[in-house]
Fold this protein.
Amino acid sequence: MSIGGLVFSPTAPLEDVSADEQDLVARLVAADPSAVGEVYDQHHRAVRAFASRLVGDAAAAEDLVHEVFVALPRAMRGYRFESSLRTFLISIAVNHARHHVRSATRRRAAIGRLALEPEGNSADPEQIQRRKELTSLLTRALDTLPLEQRVTFVLCEVEERTSREVAEITGVPEGTVRTRLHHAKKKLRQELSQEGIG
Amino acid sequence: MTDDLLKAATRALHEETADDGDDGRFTRARVMASLHQGTVKRRTRLAFILPLAACLAAGTAWGAATGRLPAMFHAIGQVVGYRSPPNPPKRRAEVTLSATPAAVAQQPTPSDVLPPAPSTAVEPAPARAEPRAPAKAAPAPSSSASFQDTDGDLYRLAHEAHFVSHDYARALAGWDAYLKAAPGGRLATEARYNRAICLLRLGRDDEARRALQPFASGMIGYRQTEARELLEELSH
């Protein structure tokens, strides 16, 4: 499975696959809606959080979550119990993210040009306001990165996953993950300093 | 300083997008609806495609058993608007040209390549002063040479009669046969031009004029200058 140059190829076999899990996977492969619903209920929060961090736009993130779970039955044909189901779902999200990231980036750029970005709620405490500003700042900086670097940064730094896990999700060697992360951070520092905040 | 800011922004993004308590009911409903829609689509597709495939398979088997397969393909081609030769393939297979025994002996084998590029395959314009062969209609096929019903073979035979044997009557019949078999073929334009030259060679001036007119007008975009010059020669 590969979209946009990102390939899912799990490398760490999981032992002790329970009969329940095997049954769930079999039902997913058969596109059983109740199985998809079950997996959704268990993992949608993790997928949504990752999608929001990667895309930086709640509506686009929701679309990505939808796409991930609709694509799940077909994608499950390639599932070999070599990674957790949650990791597998994240890898599907990565593979479907390109279009959503691009459209969210365009939307942000347009809003920025028109200066229509909504004002923060003055009722919020100062800390919440500051957090929102930082989030918005980082999201705009992430927009300047290539998708591979963006995915790597979000998975490693924002989601705090190990480089091994990220390598598993993105289907590249750990060395490549570290290189991408290095370049991503370098570019982000530049972007932040250009904003005149660093 | 920027490092600290990057860390703070990363932490902020993490917290901002952490579980917001949304139970995702709306998206769940969307996912279920999409899956249901996909299932319905698949079922509908199967309901249409399977009977259609069965009909096609049965029809093909029947056609093959009764020997009507080529005629069926021809009829289907006409229905869907495919520009196929006007005659069923069976008749095309019997297209013959009048040919001398020598020419028959020189017929290319199926492995032969097509004639050279059109620029070299087209006869130079014949000089008006050159004595022409007496005007006569192309002889009816007498000693017929049956050959494979491929457009390439038809073109090759016509080309050979025109440029090797210089038998313009036979070449004309050959170009006509090729154009009948492949009116929209890859080499149809060249064949039409060569046909016009054959008419000219045979002294059939009126027909040659009519055949050259589309080339001279630039409508076809091929050998316009030569066609114009020939038409001028004909008008003298």
Q: What stands out?
A: Chain B has a mean pLDDT of 71. The interface with chain A takes residues 1-3, 5-6, 8-10, 12-19, 22, 24, 26-28, 30-32, 34-36, 38-39 of chain B (CB under 8 Å). Residues 25-66 of chain B form the longest helix (42 residues).
